[in-house]
Amino acid sequence: MEIKKGKINVFIGATGSGKKEVVSSLVKNAEMNDLFIESFKDRSIEEVLSLQTKSQKKQKEALQMIGFSEDDLKRSLKTLSLGELERLSVAYTLCSKRDTYIFCHPSVGLDAKNKKSLIKLFRLLKTRYKKTIVVISHDSNWVHQFADFLFVVYNNNVVSTGTTYDIFCDKELCKKYDIKRPDIIEFEDFVFEKKKKRLGYRNDIKDLIKDIYRNI
After folding, report:
1. CA 103 to CA 60: how far, in whole Å?
2. Torsion, CA 23, CA 113, CA 98, CA 93, rounded to 10
3. How far apart are CA 121 and CA 127, in angstroms?
4. Sign of the Cα pseudo-torsion (93, 94, 100, 105, in order)
5. pLDDT band at 196 (very low <50, low <70, confident <90, very high)
6. Torsion from C-alpha of 154, 161, 135, 169, nearest 10 degrees
7. Is 76 left (phi over 0), alpha (psi -120 to 50) or beta?
8. pLDDT recorded at residue 136
């Protein structure tokens, strides 16, 4: 079993399933973002990013990618919210020189707008910079929107792999390993059961609405 190079790989599983441990054993020489950055709370953003790179250009680019500005470099971590700390940990990861980036629960504390921005960032890293992305998360509704490939983790082992379609459309698999199916897929199944019409697999709510308008 291997991480898919140049793709967005997502490890999902119930809390305590061992996702982080599995990723650490599979992916070598990668940078993992985490809330460890809270231990730097007495420092400024610039001081923290300087631990990865002394290039202010790279620091500024990383901050822009997460929606911060150059003016934020002097801010103390004490002034940041949980969501901002999580975004900063993403920037910290981006400042490293790696081909593979690991993001550990990066959506925690983020609102819908910032979650969407993070998806754009992952896609940018994949398409423009040809990076391999590994995301650890149990937020099925979120990862369903961008994952290329899923790894289901249970009891510190990868028990199933496949595309988002393969995994999330498999009711028995998700039930067995306590994986919450995305609301959009649950709704599509509900429509099929009630109306006997298959809307088709969608990962965007706007596309689903169009299907409902055309077919229901």
Report:
1. 20
2. -80
3. 10
4. positive
5. low
6. -90
7. beta
8. 94
In sequence order, what are the beta bridge partners of 157? Answer: 154
What count of residues does the chain have?
Answer: 216
Q: What is the C-alpha separation between 5 and 132, in angstroms, rounded?
A: 5
* Contact yes or no for 166/125 (Cβ under 8 A): no
Phi, psi of 102 (to 5 degrees): -110, 130
What's the pLDDT at 192? 55
Task: Give the mean model confidence (pLDDT) for residues 165-192.
Answer: 85
Sheet-wide strand order for 31-33: 31-33, 100-104, 132-136, 8-12, 149-154, 157-162
**164 — phi, psi (to 5°)?**
-60, -35
Distance between CA atoms of residues 9 and 158, nearest Å: 13
